[in-house]
Amino acid sequence: MSNLLVTGGAGFIGANFVHYWMETYPQDKVVVLDALTYAGNKANLDPVAQNPNFVFSHGNICDTALVETLLKEHHIDTLVHFAAESHVDRSITGPDAFIETNIIGTHSLLKAAKKIWLDEGLNEENHRFHHVSTDEVYGTLGPEDPAFSETTPYAPNSPYSASKAASDHLVRAYHHTYGLEVTTSNCSNNYGPYHFPEKLIPLVITNILQDKPLPIYGDGQQIRDWLYVEDHARGIDLVIREGRLGECYNIGGINEWANIDIVKLICSLMDKAFAEDPTLAARYPQASLAKQGNSAELITYVKDRAGHDRRYAIDPARSNNELGYQPIETFDSGIAKTVTWFLNNESWWRAVMDGSYRDWIEQQYTGREG
Ligand code: NAD
Ligand code: TYD
């Protein structure tokens, strides 16, 4: 039996991880610490909210005293760290929050973990700090370059990836210097349910449903290696249970796609969904091009992202050989599940679009009823 502290558990991957963990290990206690920034959504945790083994704490990872209290109060032995500013475009226009949360926030967690687990000795012999990072720390690949492995030198290009790289180094240093029991996973682009619709895949799905343009940055030939979010959760689970202390494990989908091809694929899946299910046209009256089978007409080439990395790809050899890790979903099955989830969860993404997903926070601090 374990007591987990999951930071960023109200975000996209964190929430999927919490759902996965509470289903897989129903005896474990899961405490989520989340600041509910624009990317945090309390509704992402609705499926577990009534579970007696679930606790939600609204707070900031930079608040070291709060983290220390949570570690002690809930007798935490495993900290899984997802909380971050995660969107590259936002890091280009406003890097400060990325430095604050991704670097200073990670250091705040490390300090608290060291104090409670090592200095005060709570769970000294049995603790784990698992840090969730990204393949973007390795920089960018040319078309023929071998995929990123755990020994690829760090070469982050965006303020986002630079801040994640810094946090990876701090985690490593706390292991090397103080003996904190850490593991790190660096994964490729995730997709799936609860994905915030500022990222490519959910943006394209929800824009088709509203007949809005589908922005393709530059020539659309940039490549990403897409990983279904539940496969990521399984990978983290394996690293926590079987990974070597102090090590990093790359988790990928073995699934490279050019952006434009993925957008065209989603267009065709949406057109097919509308053709096969006549109720969709009534439920989504705005989606006139999908109804006609012409979603791809919404594709619009726009100015490229500054410093846009050309290609990411993960060499999964270490996680495969050492942990037996393999993604379960194929891209066909994962993207079909994702499209279906968004079609069936209109109230979730509409609440994000109209801002009402923030009501919970408003109510907490004004006492207003929703
Ligand atoms: P997200 O932006 O959807 O969610 C981030 C969560 O962290 C939100 O709930 C937010 O409220 C919370 N948060 C932000 N700042 C906080 C703070 N200071 N204190 C407490 N909570 C805070 O992110 P995501 O896509 O779920 O990514 C989760 C992790 O996985 C991040 O560390 C990210 O770098 C990493 N990652 C993501 C991807 C991806 O494809 N999304 C790929 C590789 C790695
Ligand atoms: P994104 O989902 O933001 O993830 P990341 O930048 O972490 O890879 O973007 C995925 C790819 O899609 C990336 O190459 C940028 C591109 N992109 C677009 O072409 N148009 C868009 O509107 C968005 C959000 C992304």
CATH H-level superfamily title of the domain at 3-195 and 227-253 and 312-328 and 356-365: NAD(P)-binding Rossmann-like Domain
DSSP helix fraction: 40-55%
User: Which H/E pattern describes the elements?
Assistant: EHEEHEHHEHEEHEEEHEEHHHEHHHH
Identify low-pLDDT runs: none
Number of strands: 13
Hetero ligands: nicotinamide-adenine-dinucleotide, thymidine-5'-diphosphate
Find the CATH topology of the domain at 3-195 and 227-253 and 312-328 and 356-365. Rossmann fold
CATH architecture of the domain at 3-195 and 227-253 and 312-328 and 356-365: 3-Layer(aba) Sandwich
Helix/strand layout:
Blueprint: E1 3-7, H1 12-24, E2 29-34, E3 54-58, H2 64-73, E4 78-81, H3 88-93, H4 96-119, E5 128-134, H5 159-178, E6 182-187, E7 190-191, H6 200-209, E8 214-217, E9 223-225, E10 227-228, H7 229-242, E11 248-251, E12 256-258, H8 259-276, H9 279-283, H10 288-291, E13 299-302, H11 317-323, H12 331-344, H13 346-354, H14 359-366
Parallel strand pairs: 1-2, 1-4, 2-3, 4-5, 5-6, 6-11, 7-10, 8-13
Antiparallel strand pairs: 9-12
Helix pairs in contact: 1-7, 2-4, 4-5, 6-8
Keywords: Lyase, NAD
Catalytic activity: dTDP-alpha-D-glucose = dTDP-4-dehydro-6-deoxy-alpha-D-glucose + H2O
Family: Belongs to the NAD(P)-dependent epimerase/dehydratase family. dTDP-glucose dehydratase subfamily.
